[in-house]
Amino acid sequence: MTVAVTADSSWKNLCDSCTTQSCCKSFVGANMLLSEFEQIKDAVGTDTFAKTVLFNQIPTLVIKNKNNSNECTFWDSEKECCSIYENRPFDCKLFPFDIHEIDGKYMWVINSCNPDSKWAWTESMLDSFENDPAFPELLNSLDSYSYPESTKNNLYMVKILRPVNCPKNNSS
To answer: Which tens digit of pLDDT belongs to each residue from 38-49?
Structure first.
């Protein structure tokens, strides 16, 4: 019997053999667009969850980690879920996908413990990200979102998927 692998099933199975289990628990806070900051602030009733850091020499809003912890402020350790899931930033929605600048072009990459996986299913995910209403705002902030080629991620293997559909990549 042949079972078709859909984007949904691949997405859900992506982390099954992950040994780091670190999403939301061991990263610098997620980047936020200004509109996302306002949306989260309205949802939680405070702005104390955010701080500004320099990322690629650009002031960038990020979600703070919990005190004396690498966990995101909004990670509920008891329930093992995000307490603002419906209002989470686009940066969180993207994970484990990311954007890296490689040879002067923005590239979609995936951070994975399973670098030898079949990645054809990701195309529909990347298309959905590029068609998300938040994506144009992200494009205007890519320099504060994308990691330079020299950045190494010690937790995951990075697999380059394809160029990001954006003006910088289309104006070669």
So the answer is: 999 999 999 999
